[in-house]
Structure formats: C-alpha cells, structure tokens
Fold this protein.
Amino acid sequence: MDYKKLVEVYENISKTSKRLSKTYYVSELLKKTKDDEIEKVLLLLNGRIHPAWDKSDMGVAAKLVIKALALASGLSSDKVEKEWKKTGDLGIVAYNLMQNKKQATLFSEKLSVEKVFADLRKLSKISGHGAVDTKTKIISGLLSSASNVEAQYIVRTVLEDMRVGIGDGTVRDSIVWSSVEGLKINYDGDGNKFDYELSDDLLQLVPEDSKNKYANIVEIIQDAYNITNEFAEVVQILRKDGVNGLLKVDVSVGKPIKVMLYPKAKDMEDAFRIVGKPAAFEYKYDGFRIQAHKKNGKVMLFTRRLENVTNQFPDIVKAISENVKGDDFILDSEAVGFDKNGKYLPFQSISQRIKRKYDIERVAKEYPVELNVFDILAKEGKNLLKMGFLKRRKLIECMIKEEDKKIILARQLITDDIEKALDFYQEALKAGEEGVMGKNLEGIYKPGARVGYGVKLKPTMENLDLVIVGAEWGKGKRSGWLSSFHIACRDDDGNLLDIGKVGTGIKELVQEVIEDSSDAEGVPNKDSDESKVEDSSEEKVEVAKEDNNRVTFTQLTELLKPLVIEEDNNGVKVKPEIVIEISYEEIQKSSKYSSGYALRFPRVLRIREDRAVIDISTIDFIEDLYFEQK
Ligand code: AMP
C-alpha cells in the first residue's frame, strides 16, 4: 500500500473531532488493506511500530530528527534548528523543508507502508557505537523519498507525537464496519449518525430480545481483542472465519491477556450495592500487578501493560515453580515489596526492579517481593474466565502452598455483614495496605473491563496517574533542573489533555553521582557490553531513587532529557512516556487547560514505571471524581 493512503487518513482524521467520521475513514482504509499489511497499517495508524506491550522504541529525540532533516534538505543543522524554534513543531518543519526540496528532486522512490514500517523498525534495533549516524541516515533516506505531508507524518511517528487521536475504541469500531461479514452500515457521511442491518447468520449470534444488536456485535469484537491484544489478529480471524471465528478465540497460556480492572466504591455500602451480598473482601496490596503464566513447566511473568518481565523477577519465578501445583495455568496477582522487618513497602520502593536489565540477582535480594495471588484465569488447558469467582478462588487455594514473604493468597473475608467488612477494612489499613477489594462471589473474569464484578475501596482521595508532556527549567537553586512539570490526562481517543503543572513532592537533593546522560545513544566503553551502555543512565538514576524513595528533580530531569521533542528558553515539550502518580486536594473547573480541569495543590507521589500512557487517568474518570467530591 502507498504510504500516501495512510497519510490521507491521518489528515482526514486530524480535521475532525467526530468519532463516527474517524471510524468511517479508518474503516475505508481497512477495506483496502491486504492481509499482510493489516498489522503494519493498524500499528502506524496509532503512531506505533510495535504493539503497546512491547518495550522496544525507536530511541529518536528531536536532535536526531534535526540532523536527518538537515541531511535530507541540504541545510545546516543550525538552520533547521532555527526553523524549529520558529514553529516549535518538527513535523511542520519537515513539511516546509521537503516542500522546497521537492522542486529540486523530481524523481524519488514512491514510499510504501512496508518501506516506512521496515525502516522505522530498524531504528529500534540499532544501538551502541555509530547508532546516531545510522539512524540519521535511515530517517533522512525516508524523508528524501517523501512528499511534504508524508515527511510531516514520518517525523511525527519517529518522535512518537502523532497529534492525531485514534483511540482503541475507534479502531475497534472501524474493524466492525469494515470486516464483519453480514453487517451493513448505512452512514450519513457527516459524522452524525448511522444505522445498520444484520444478516440472518449474525442475528443468530445475538440475544433475540436485545435492543442494541449492533452493540452485541461490537462486544464480541472487543472480547476477542481483550484476549488476543492485537487488532491485526482480530481482523485476520474475521476475514478467515467471520464472527464465529472470534467467538472461538481462547486464552492461550504464554500470551498475556488484558487484566480485569475495578471501579471505585464510595463506601462500604456502595461496595455491597455493586458486588452484592455476601461478598468476598481482600486486602488491596500496594505493589504491581503480575500475570503469571506457566506452560510446559516454564514460568512467564507479565505486567499489567503486558510487558514480559520474567527475567527481572527470578525470585517470583522460583516461588511459582516451587509452591504452585500444576504445569499449565495463568494466575493474577500483586507483587509487593517488604523491608528487613517484613513490613510491606509502597510500590515506589520496588518499582526499579521492573526495568532492571542486569545485576538482577543482587537487586532481587536487596528489594525482595512477595507474590499475593488473587485470581486464576486458566488451568490445564481450560479457560476459567466464565467460572464464578468463588470457584476460581477455591482452585488457587488448592494449588498454592503458601510461604510467608514468598507467595501467599490474598487475605480474604467472605461476609454479608457490613460491620465485619468494615473491621476487615480497618485491619487492612492497619497492616499498611491501601484498602480492600470487594468481589462478587459469582463474578466472571472480564479482561480489560472495569465492570462491577469487583470494586476497590480506599480511604484517600483517588490519586491520578498522569503523563508528563512538558517541563520548565528551574530558577535560582533549582537552575539546571527541570522543575515544573506539565501533566496531562487522556480521552477515549488517546488525545492528551492538559490538567496543570506540578512542582511539589519532589526532592531537591543534589545527586553528585549523577552526570549528564542526555546522550541516549552513548558510546560504548571497550570493557562494557552494549546493553550496559544503554543502561548507564538508568543505573545513575537509581542512585537517586534509593534515597528515601522520593523522586528528585535530578531524576526527573535525566528521565525527560532524552524525550525532548521541542524546546525554547523556558522549557521543553517531551514525548509522553513518564507516568507519575499525583495526589491533590481538590479538582477544580478551569478554562486554562485543555481538559477543562485543574488540580488544587498537586503533589508528585511517585513515578509509575508499570504504567504507560494508555493506563493514565481518563478525562471521564476525572469528571466523575469532580462530581463525586461535590
Ligand atoms: P487501582 O490501581 O487503584 O485501580 O487498584 C486496582 C489494582 O489493585 C489492581 O490492578 C491490582 O494491581 C491491585 N490489587 C491489589 N490487591 C488486589 C486484590 N486482592 N485483588 C485485585 N487487585 C488487587
């Protein structure tokens, strides 16, 4: 497929905020996409070259794009940088420079989706000595063959700053519109409404008395996506075996599936109202979610964002191998850190283990974790998602040999008595936990959904997980550090919406051990291997973290420097990658920020290494909290 076709869709989508229009544009593109292009097109549409759970990234910041633009346009880097300062947007700079250039080069290779995708994937595999030059050449090669508007989107893709919002919901609906045989969509063409007709075959698959049969079909697609985690796979199955094929999609041990999420209950009465009586209450442990798979005797561990972290947690692998009966299963659990006295520690103290690439055994000893198992999703080839919660719990009780500070079952109480439930809640808080989870005894396990089969109950105002999108340089004693951080939430389409700035909660400690590590590519030292070179900044940053577990300005500055995509004298705009947890006193309406809200007294609590942009708080959630607090 010509890259141009994809770019036309980006352009059309950027000009509308109507979800139906976006759905239409993407669905028309999908109809024209061949089987072997589906994966690439779907990823690129989202500005990605790897699935969301894959940690690989292109490692390209603004400076490198400037070099590539200079090479492709024949201008000096200084000139390109000046243009950048004028517009603040390297995509626009690319558009302008390639426009001029095109008059000179009449013949250039026509760009295909395959070529762009393959070249961008190459970027993520290059590291070590000479990496900057090689990457510059690849990007400038693409830019030289690109039209002006193609160049604009290539630059935005490598900077991971698409400025075009296509959320998972829109992609899913586009798949429904384009790839479900037997579903006819009559769309009004201006983004306001559509109706549908279902074939007799499809009608057989939905409840007869359903008022919204279209929604039933969408749900089938969503359920399959929650298990496969790949839209491309969903489309392939639809094309080959239709909706019936999707209904047969099953959990596959070894392949992570989306975890179930839990809405918040206002109080204990509300918790019972949502999950029913009697209910199971469990400690809500403050660690990070681990989905543990075992297949053919081999244990694999995944985070909530489906990253494979098996290598980082040999201690958990061992605990599961030794203490859990069975050869084939998927467990859901929370890994929690504890100190020398066995006291549970907050998430931040062990978060560094998630990204660790070497020296793992030592760090595992220094920052031990206990696995608190609370659910099971599959066992010996059997999918347990539709089995009631109580039965699932009984299974894990039979399978797990509990061993303190290694692997235990989530502490649980089943009751219909509000007083007993409240006592249990207090007991959890006294033990240093965050609160309790309340669970419906018959509840199924619904991957990816925040449905009422379980709720969380905690005493504090709900913290927000927000992503840093920019920062300002500090003044006076904070000069040299980024000190005020612009934070954003997201909407359903993945657009980021500003919600204010935060500068408190961060330590001013000067970390002398931390040197400038902004050159992300680095130059390998002859005694070290490449992975160590890549990791050196991470190592330095950890020194800061070990101090009281509070985030420091130095640490945030070092994390953000390689992510800069725009800068001026006051500060920087960065790729939205660093997720921080923020507490606050109140949510207020505000016309100053694009979310329409601002936080009163926001405070940085910790960096959430286990969360990606897709996991940050949504505007709907913030709106609910706003009304709740009133
Ligand atoms: P939150 O992160 O505040 O939305 O709370 C939900 C998270 O609590 C889940 O994603 C789990 O990581 C964690 N959690 C801790 N203990 C439990 C438990 N017993 N059952 C389910 N989730 C738990």
User: Anything to note?
Assistant: The two ends are 52 Å apart (CA to CA). Residues 274 and 452 are 6 Å apart (CA to CA).
